[in-house]
Amino acid sequence: MNSQKEDLDLRLKLEPVKCIACGVCEMVCSMHRDSVLTPMTSSIILHIEDKANYFGLVLKTKSEGLVLGRPEGASSGQQASGSGGPGAKPILLREACDLCDGHPKCAKICPTKCITVVD
Amino acid sequence: MNLRNGKIGIIDLSTGESSEEDFAGDVLTEGVPRELLEKHGPDSIVLGTGLLTGSLIPASCVGTLTTGRHTMPILGHAGIELKLTGFDFLVLKGKASNWGYIWIRDGIMEFVEMPESPQLNSWQRTEKIRSDQGDSKIQVLSGGPWCDAGSPAAQLVVDHWGGEDKVGMGAEFGKRNLAAVAFRGMGELEVADPEAHFEKSVALMRGHLSRLALNKGLQSYYEGAAVDDFVSLAHRYIGCYGCPYPCRSYLKTEEDPKEMRLMHKEPGYLHYDIPALEMATKVGLSPRDATRVLVRCARAGAEPVAVMAAALASSAHPDVVSIDALLARHDDIRPASKGNFELSFPALKDYETCLGLGLCPRYWAKVGFDIGAISSCAESALGHKLM
User: Fold this and answer.
1) How big is the CA angle at B62 (ends B58 and B64), to the nearest 5 degrees?
2) Residue A2 falls within a domain, yes or no?
3) A60 belongs to a structural domain
4) CATH code assigned at B12
5) Which of A34, A48, A87 lies at the smallest CB-CB distance from B105?
6) Is A111 within 8 Å of B77 when comparing Cβ atoms?
7) Could B123 and A109 be called an inter-chain contact, meaning their C-beta atoms sit closer than 8 Å?
8) What is the dihedral of CA B64, B65, B71, B73, to 10 degrees?
9) In which domain, by residue range, is B123 found?
10) 10-residue block means of pLDDT along chain B (387 residues)?
């Protein structure tokens, strides 16, 4: 699923079945924005239903709205309405992915290539 | 203070009153819980996070729970969530007069009464706490009936799964009328040089992965998970926070392991308890039945090695039904002495150092515990040398 097309002609591609839920994508995304480690301001959110081992990613993009990286497949064009919990900053209020100025950190640190950059 | 909150939370279970102390610590966790036990009383329980917990260093996922002479690691996403609550350490003192749980978030800790908890198993407690507090990402260290009864073979579960508590910590909760400890981390950690820390951590991780074979979950750490009957039930592998090479394999026994949609609410179990699987093999259980036994033990808050050893002592061929019956007899089952993560390194000192740093001992034993490489990464986050 090609999730985003920016002026830089780069896109993030999600292959959610490769995700291992390590969560570093959230941390480096927030660090890119605020220079601190936290999952609270990231454009990408890890969703986990732990008892059922159901997990995937939600990515907020500028051009395609939300991209849902469900284990059964990715889809785009969703409206931003979910949240990371009552105290967490809702995805609606978070900034959309800016591709880290052309060098997406989430893709670089993702150990399984669940998130990759494509032209 | 980089990678630290600078705060210790203290709560007296007998009164519900909480207080705070400053923590001036760019120091390893190792040693701090003991100091806190000396200060606040040897019967206290200390939750802690490692110096590097929550950093970008691979597998920096570890928190700890200490009481008396024993410490258990806290893995999954619980260690980092604990650090992001705003506390570096938490001290639980005394005994509650009524059953309840500790709820920690946003620099706040409180005791919440849950009088119905003795009627709930560990999974039901986790679900209830998440439902009551309205957040499915809350991390829960939960006891079950065995813990409530103070059984020496009790085991805490971390978000439904067992494997960390091989030291009877569950009974310590039960003795204090403590049904669970729950926390949600929404804070942040400062980093000295974010770009350098990112680049060094990525390089370190890539170096590790280049030396390792393709990850196959628990099979990559334990050859017993390579048998066909285990592999055929494997659904997905899942890592703790920041772990690029997970040791956790989820087996589905109640629906097709290839089912990727969210269907059955409780389709299986997350395996990372190697001694439990070794004992299941010794007992003669198939991976499918072993999974079902571990589900039952986790719900009961019972340490599965002890349960299966007792089953083997009473029957030449125990099965799920007979082991299930044993779970009603928590008083006369002796604890097992074999650790899980404790056995990652030949030397206990390396294990303790790993916990002090907030790093997973299983992962770092696998890739080689290179303190020099860790120090280089840590320096970029801390702003000074590690030691």
Assistant:
1) 165
2) no
3) yes
4) 3.60.9.10
5) A87
6) no
7) no
8) -40
9) 7-189
10) 95 97 75 93 95 97 94 97 97 98 96 97 98 96 97 96 96 97 96 97 98 98 98 98 98 97 96 98 97 98 96 94 92 84 92 94 97 94 87
